[in-house]
Amino acid sequence: MPDPSLMDGHAIAAAVRDGDLSATEVITATLSRIERVDGSVNAFTDVVAERALARAADVDAARKRGDALGPLAGAPFAVKNLIDIEGLPTRAGSKINRERAPASRDGAVLRRMEDAGAILVGGLNMGEYAYDFTGENVHDGATRNPHDLGHMSGGSSGGSGGAVGAGLVPIALGSDTNGSIRVPSAFCGCFGLKPTYGRLTRAGSFPFVGSFDHLGPMARSITDLALAYDAMQGPDPEDAAATTRPPEPSLLNLENGLGDLRIAMAGGYFATGGDPEAFAAVEILANALGCDRRVEIPEAARARSAAYLITAAEGAALHLDRLRTRSHDFDPAVRDRLLAGAMIPAPWIERAQRFRRWYRDAVAELFRDVDVILAPSTPCRAPKSGQTHFVLDGVTLPVRANIGVFTQPISFIGLPVVAVPVRVDAGLPLGVQVIAAPWNEAVALRVARYLEREGVVSAPSAEL
User: Fold this and answer.
1) What pTM was computed for the model?
2) Fewest CB within a 10 Å sphere: which of 77, 207, 369, 429?
């Protein structure tokens, strides 16, 4: 039996159900690995060892009684620290929030994961208030890239990417507003799912931009990604944006192959403004899928600009009181962008929202002719820790503002995306977005699973 702390979640659950492993053995090994490794990666801000061991004992007792165990029985997971964990203040990566009263109950997605048998082991580092693409938190320290500790993990779900990429947990939960699951998935070499906007409840999580925010899983395998996603589906009256659509299980469709799916690469905006390796990663997937078609997503550059405006304005509105009274306690880079957002003229936001409606309809027309679109997740590999600028196409640009150049136009209208890690050469991982039409997560997961099965994409843990 391999080291339980490095097994995938579905393999752990099978071993626990069969009696080859106890949940207590799994959690003990996981906590030991976190203690040994996380000092280098800095993915965790909170480890809930006592709670995890008590939960593992409950799973083991249930098995001895002959009770049915969930699909993730005994599998450890962790959550970005903007998701409520009972008994802990919900930090959202900030200095200010850690003064809040402890959460009185777990966030909805956390509860649903534990209903499926998974076991929470802790809370994860993140960019302050999720307004970050680097993974470098000024209050809790940077989460380091597990594949090269001198590089960024990406953000804002940097702790989630770092924890999965370092083999600390097989599954982590993150959030994605403008790319915060897809960027760390790319940099840290793991799979990530940003579902359709409204597919998963956000109840019991700290918001950033209410009209963009998504919660979703990150994992070392597509099977684990699908299991976690399926566990968290379902309407929730506590989240006004959550869909009332019934759950649509994706796991059963994973092995259906490509069938007659129509797949294309994103051209135009998504084929310029990045390093050659980023576009080579897309070509690798396209070749494996037998895809030579390109489509152009209309007005993607304008969509990114509109997303910037709405993000800044909504984020500023949420934090206005904190900015007035506690501005000195913010990360200066976050504070300054929020202050700028508070000064955006209202007519600009109205125009951005009108464009957003047009863009949503235009992209919907595009999906009449294709089922899946491939695009880079990021314009480059993970920059070095502390790096403030990079050069793309001969132009020097700020890192923090431009890592999400390819993710923002997609989350702007809430499309579902599976982010897959790709190795172009011996360098750091890159990522590709497998983008589907709204509510078609299962299609994107099918394509990603095909690529995983064919050995084109994989997410091995870093050797730490």
Assistant:
1) 0.97
2) 369
